[in-house]
Amino acid sequence: MSPPLRTFLLFALVALLYVSTGFLQSWTLALTIFNMGILSAIMALGANMQWGYAGLFNIGIMGFTALGGLAAVLIAMPANPGAWAAGGWRLVAALLMGAATITLAVQLWRRMHSGAGRTLAMLCVLIVGFFAYRWLFDPAVTAIEAVNPASAGNLGGLGLPVLLAWPVGGALAGAAAWGIGKVALGLRSDYLAIATLGVAEIIVAVMKNEDWLARGVKNVVGIPRPVPYEINLQNDAGFVAQAASFGLDPVTASTLWVRICYAGLFLAVLIVLLVLLELALKSPWGRMMRAIRDNEIAAEAMGKDVRRRHLQIFVLGSAVIGLAGAMMTTLDGQLTPTTYNPLRYTFLVWVMVIVGGSGSNWGAVLGGFLIWFFWVQVEPLGILLMQGLTYFMADNSWLRGHLQDSAQHMRLMTMGIILLLVLRFSPRGLIPER
């Protein structure tokens, strides 16, 4: 079978799964899964850039996704004037003080000769800067978090259109990746993986505990939408009449229309990214990245700056992941830091990349849609399966209770089975790199 035909048939099969969900369950559910499948495909594209193009083992995807979500709050939410008046500008001064301290310490390290003098100077700068930072920072945070803590307690955002948060989310994740990459990309691959995982946990921990930033575990709700609200559509006489012409009630029609609007926006982003990444992969830059991935020593011998290229692809891949994180928070309409966990936002994305095909953009997209579909649908199907298997058992049977309680674990078992089958029968993924 030719590769283009194989790709077409695989995507047709995945499309059939989504369409079947619409007919057998509901189109609302099918579109909900589809929208998250698009976002999962974008995240898989970002991870595939890092691993498939350059062989960088990043297991801190969760952190970059969370930074993208934070961007949606900082850009789209309205500012909290009371918090800014209470301690906002003092907090800004504290952050500038911290940045100046780190910058001065770095300059001392670079410009002074090694020895006790340089060490002593750096310690003095860091200690004095730390206490000055805390002197400004702590009272400002206390004042900000005391302003209407039940519904605010944070600085808020800039009140700009939420669509601007998407590229800003990518830029914020890319900036964080640049800082991490400057330090961690010199490490061996397994150390790089540990470092990125640790940084991701730090990012999420900061978001959970710094209420002044995005309300911490109290969450931010009501993030503005780029699409209409259902209640507004239901109150629109023209929309209600149009829905009635299709035999739909206003509630169902408004729900479907909102999800279709999101799907249109997300598909536009996915298509643009896919086209750009395909062009990049087939360009001299793409061939150079794969040459570095396959043999770093030979690439260095040919005059390529391997570490610089690794940093470049690490930043670009993280920016794509941050973009997906901002889009995901926009879809949810809220930022919930406690939902960011490595299983969902790191390891599941890796399964998408491996199953789809490492190094293949089309494979990453296919893996995103396929794995997300099974991730959502396997648990309810597992419950139905266990109910069928235990139908003839007594109600008080310990085995029946055990099997039905274990149905929720079908999701993890299914992911493992899919991964094992793909690695056994198609080690390079469903759509291998060409």
**Low-confidence parts, pLDDT < 50 over ≥5 residues?**
none
Q: Give the SSE string.
A: HHHHHHHHEHHHHHHEHHHH
Quickly count the helices: 18
Q: What is the general shape?
A: globular
**Overall strand count:** 2
**Cα Rg:** 25 Å
| Count of spatially separate domains | 2
| Share in helix | over 70%
- Major sheet: order of its strands? 1-2
Global mean pLDDT: 90
Distance between the termini: 15 Å
Estimated structural class: mainly alpha
Main β sheet profile: 2 strands, antiparallel
Please tell me about this protein's structure.
The protein is mostly helical. It has 2 domains: 3-79 and 156-425, no CATH class; 80-155. It is 76% helix and 1% strand. The chain has a two-stranded antiparallel ribbon with strand order 1-2. The chain is globular and about 80 Å long. The two termini are 15 Å apart.
